[in-house]
């Protein structure tokens, strides 16, 4: 959520005031766009790579460790912060220039920071795991008592359940581990939003000029299915073999404020891909205002339009708080730094892990491909329907490299084939346009190429490792714990996942 809010009761008057403030904030965005008041207006900003990486905590036996307060005290680094579940923490990586070999220096800095944090966590008998979904999490870990101590998380939990009016249901059918295996199904209800905490992600930020925002957001949306297919790392939850990137359906269901009747009416979900290509960032904030009631209606008395009249840059606190509770897979971000407003695209579809170099490769592929598409002669999104992009996301998340994705001028194609034939050269062009060195481009895009050639993502490796252990006689629980132990060892060794042995 990014904002601390105190626990309190909300009245109808609070909600009306908050709605009015969000609406005025949306008007302020429109006016700032029209009057060229963003700091990057008329020129692309310096390319910066910014990321947030969510991490899981385990004990020595590979069970979830409800210990984030203890671990954060031991790490003692302001870059590390709490997350929703007591078994989560997050590292915020400060933005770095995205030119020459700076990506490689960022990779080294991230590895050094994580190694230092792991060493300190281990002194408390806990360990960090960079993975999309912790395979040893079970339904018992979703009890309300395991929400982090920060009051904002409990308040968010309370407001989602107040809006929904009933327990949250998680219902996902998986895909069989191998030939002749049955299809697993996870069907459970919970009295907390903690299944959301099972979804540990890599979030990538890209600052863009206002007039370029729509093209970058549309490009990010159009490649989401390819991203999750190539980077899947979340195949297991509560003992069940689910999708290759199970974060997608789990997150959609864990924060759903709609009871069945509202779903049947077509009310939009708060975890949302969207429903159309956009022409300006205003389209997204206007949708937020139109479709989504407030979850945390905390208002100030500041009139953003009056601030604009006075020549000030408005902070738009209500608009930003509201935007933080609409969980788009590609989210618009309005931010003010040193009194200057700018805009970012926040890409949220990727899982964490498996290794630092895999994380950097996923990042480079995303940034390069978006830039390559934005600079293409004919926009990709003018050649495919928005529904096709949405279906690609679901298909890529479910079947991974076995998915069939739709791509203009290609038709139905597997993501690995599409990437090798079309997307890697485009991503290379995009990274070159940013000024990324050939050494860095080769280092990261060769990892993506290796995944496609070896047909092994983090998810594919996890599934194969569990299948092999079960074939050797282990039950599912033992196989998951043993696989996770091997995963952590290989994660620390640091070789990219497409080279991992089963």
From TrEMBL:
Is Ligase among this UniProt entry's keywords? yes
- Quickly give the catalysed reaction: L-cysteine + L-glutamate + ATP = gamma-L-glutamyl-L-cysteine + ADP + phosphate + H(+)
Record-given protein name: Glutamate--cysteine ligase
- Keywords tagged on the record: Ligase
Task: Give a GO molecular function annotation for the protein.
Answer: ligase activity
Task: List, alphabetically, the InterPro entries matched.
Answer: GCL_type2/YbdK_subfam (IPR050141), GCS2 (IPR006336), Gln_synth/guanido_kin_cat_dom (IPR014746), UCP012666 (IPR016602)
Asked if Transport is a keyword of the record, the answer is no
Q: Name one Pfam family in it.
A: GCS2
Q: Which domain of life is it from?
A: Bacteria
């Amino acid at each position: 959520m990014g904002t601390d809010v105190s626990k309190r009761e909300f009245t109808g008057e609070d909600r009306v005031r908050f709605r009015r403030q969000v609406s005025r904030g949306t008007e302020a965005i429109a006016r700032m766009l029209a009057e060229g008041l963003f700091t990057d207006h008329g020129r692309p900003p310096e390319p910066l790579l910014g990321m947030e990486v969510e991490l899981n905590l385990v004990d020595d036996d590979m069970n979830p460790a409800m210990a984030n307060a203890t671990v954060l005290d031991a790490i003692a680094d302001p870059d590390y912060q709490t997350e929703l579940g007591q078994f989560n923490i997050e590292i915020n990586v400060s933005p770095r220039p995205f030119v020459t070999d700076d990506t490689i220096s960022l990779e080294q800095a991230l590895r050094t920071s994580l190694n230092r944090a792991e060493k300190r966590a281990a002194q408390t008998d806990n360990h960090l795991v960079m993975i999309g979904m912790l395979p040893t999490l079970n339904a018992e870990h979703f009890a309300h008592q395991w929400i982090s101590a920060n009051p904002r998380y409990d308040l968010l939990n309370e407001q989602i359940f107040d809006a929904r009016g009933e327990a949250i249901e998680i219902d996902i059918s998986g895909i069989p581990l191998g030939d002749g295996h049955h299809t697993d199904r996870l069907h459970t209800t919970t009295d907390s939003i903690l299944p959301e905490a099972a979804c540990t992600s890599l979030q990538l930020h890209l600052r863009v000029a206002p007039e370029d925002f729509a093209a970058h957001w549309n490009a990010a949306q159009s490649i989401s299915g390819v991203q999750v297919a190539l980077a899947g790392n979340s195949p297991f939850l509560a003992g069940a073999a689910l999708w290759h990137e199970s974060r997608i359906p789990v997150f959609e269901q864990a924060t759903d404020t709609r009871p069945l009747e509202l779903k049947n009416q077509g009310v939009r979900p708060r975890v949302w891909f969207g429903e159309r290509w956009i022409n300006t960032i205003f389209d997204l904030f206007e949708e937020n205002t139109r479709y989504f009631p407030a979850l945390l209606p905390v208002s100030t008395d500041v009139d953003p339009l009056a601030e604009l009249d006075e020549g000030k840059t408005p902070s738009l606190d209500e608009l930003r708080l509201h935007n933080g509770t609409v969980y788009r897979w590609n989210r618009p971000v309005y931010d003010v730094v040193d009194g200057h407003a700018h805009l970012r695209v926040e890409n949220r579809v990727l899982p964490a892990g498996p290794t630092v170099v895999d994380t950097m490769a996923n990042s480079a592929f995303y940034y390069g491909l978006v830039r390559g598409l934005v600079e293409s002669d004919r926009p990709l999104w003018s050649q495919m329907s928005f529904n096709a992009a949405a279906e690609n996301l679901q298909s890529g998340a479910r079947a991974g490299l076995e998915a069939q994705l739709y791509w203009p001028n290609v038709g139905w194609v597997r993501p690995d084939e599409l990437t090798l034939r079309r997307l890697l050269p485009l991503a290379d062009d995009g990274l070159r346009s940013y000024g990324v060195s050939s050494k860095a481009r080769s280092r990261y895009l060769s990892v993506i190429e290796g995944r496609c050639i070896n047909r092994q993502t983090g998810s594919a490796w996890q599934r194969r490792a569990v299948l092999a252990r079960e074939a050797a006689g282990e039950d599912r629980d033992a196989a998951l714990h043993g696989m996770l132990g091997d995963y952590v060892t290989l994660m620390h060794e640091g070789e990219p996942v497409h080279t991992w042995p089963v």
